[in-house]
């Protein structure tokens, strides 16, 4: 298995400097990783750093809480795409999911989908807050709204990804979307376990080390 082609090398620490982000992107490109995931303000820098290197530029929207109004999320996503993002990972409206208002969850995702036409859209569910039934419902709402992937976690929530989450998300989307496992995945074996469970992408800050 070519593990590098699954990995989005992630740097979302609030204290990351422009120099940190540039070094992060160059290192990922040097090791043939699929993509780099950076904060939206660093998208232009990341785009320049990996130009012509075959590395996807991924960014996040409404990160890490998902509490922005849908139109604000859409505006952030639209700006990220204009700046050169290939893919957008949005945090869904977690409070709406906990209130079982999945029409609102769907509308929130659809607003960002409409702003990112032609780009890959992933929806971060933050599964650590959700019951199994709500994970299923949130994943289905995301797919109805046009998401290309559902994603486990921000890495800043109550817990990271679990094999059980990935298996559940894979069943819920039933081939209609990919599954990105993210949050606390630090070893090659952990990444492979997630892939065996159904993950089609891995978000990690340890991707280069996994290849070692």
Folded structure, characterized:
The chain has 212 residues and is of the alpha/beta class. 43% of the residues lie in helices and 17% in strands. Strands 1-2-3-4-5-6-7-8 form an eight-stranded parallel barrel, surrounded by seven helices. The longest helix has 14 residues, at 70-83. It is globular.
Ordered list of secondary-structure elements with their pairings:
Blueprint: E1 7-11, H1 18-30, E2 35-38, H2 43-49, E3 56-61, H3 70-83, E4 87-91, H4 94-98, H5 102-115, E5 120-124, H6 132-144, E6 149-151, H7 163-173, E7 178-182, H8 188-197, E8 201-204, H9 207-211
Parallel strand pairs: 1-2, 1-8, 2-3, 3-4, 4-5, 5-6, 6-7, 7-8
Helix content: 40-55%
Which band does the percent of strand residues land in? 15-25%
Radius of gyration based on Cα positions: 16 Å
**Overall mean pLDDT score?**
97
* Tally of contiguous helical segments: 9
List keywords for this structure.
212 residues; alpha/beta; eight-stranded parallel barrel; 8 strands; 43% helix; globular
Short description:
With 212 residues, this protein is α/β, with parallel strands linked by helices. The chain is 43% helix and 17% strand. The longest helix has 14 residues, at 70-83.
